[in-house]
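Hi, here's the filled form for the chain we discussed.

Project: internal
Contact: R.S.
Residues: 379
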Amino acid sequence: MIKVLQCLRILILFALVVLFNSCITQFVPETTEDQNILVVEGIITDQPGPKTIKISTTMPLGERSSAKTLSGCNVTLSDDLGNNFNLSETASGSYTTNPTFQGVVGRSYTLHIKTNGSRHNRTYESEPVLMRPVPPIDSLYYDKVVLTRSEDGYSLTEGCQIYLDTHDPDNSCRYYRWEYVETWEFQLPYNYVQNRVCWTTANSNLITIKNTSSLSEDKIVRQPLNYITNGTDRLKIRYSMLVNQYSLSEAEYAYWEKLENVVEQVGGLFDIIPASIPSNIRCIEKPEENVLGFFSVSALSSKRIFIPGGFKGIIDLYTDCENLIVGGNDSIPGLGTTVWVIINNTFPPPYKVLTYFKSCADCTTRGTTTKPVFWQDDK
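And the returned structure, exactly as it came back:
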């Protein structure tokens, strides 16, 4: 009788699971938002070298991909002196200027886009955007931040807050934006691996802007740029950050400010939607059409900082590396494909320590062994 009751319970539970799963369907709410909006990203600066404009379209709500690159467009730039510059499609949806192109401070630039048949062969044009000068970055510096202390007052773990100072003696900039590129050296804790020392790079994904229009002096002091915790290995060996500083118009500053609010709110269906953020790009044939993104034009000033290691309590990313110990004469199936040697002890009795994680035996899984040309070793 007990076995019968147990079987009945299992059958009932199975039926409920099947019934529950069969009732689950994807809910895609109806919205008034356009489901195939043109997205334009790119910036033109006064620095030499090619500049890239990326063009894509949004996907309908419920699709896995948030954007789809748009190929086959005719993209050009023009300035207020009547010069025209053609951009070539170097990758799907990426349109690049000639390598000799260089913007000029004081000139205005307009972006022109003609789409292909899949986009109704429409023409899009930005407002003329003036290339404004930008002051140099005065200084980059950092403070160590104590995250935890021991009972006797000694710091146990430390983070890092990076700051920037800048000023414009002409009081003409007023609206600033910064982005940065991080590079750091890291090392595997095992001497026997082939690729032990690597460098890796990451681009900033933060919106960092500042407005000094309400201040009597166009001066910025201790502007926070990046906060690094002990939860990564960025501060373990040596870290570097390259900061780019741009000068914005009031309209572009408003664009980035609204976009920042959307990012901070994480976003819900009834929060501010991207289409409510005004773009400086319009469709000629259909002016009421929504366009996402902003065509940016600015002079550029850059500065780099190096931060030596020595921060306390940095996370150890390799605590789970040593998975298996085998004798020195034992065959190792899958060596170099599914299992790797990280320690080779030649003293009697010889043995090898193996790992199932390639990242424990080869630093190129998340970096490169080529030292960056700008790298300065800690002295």
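Let me know if anything looks off before we file it.
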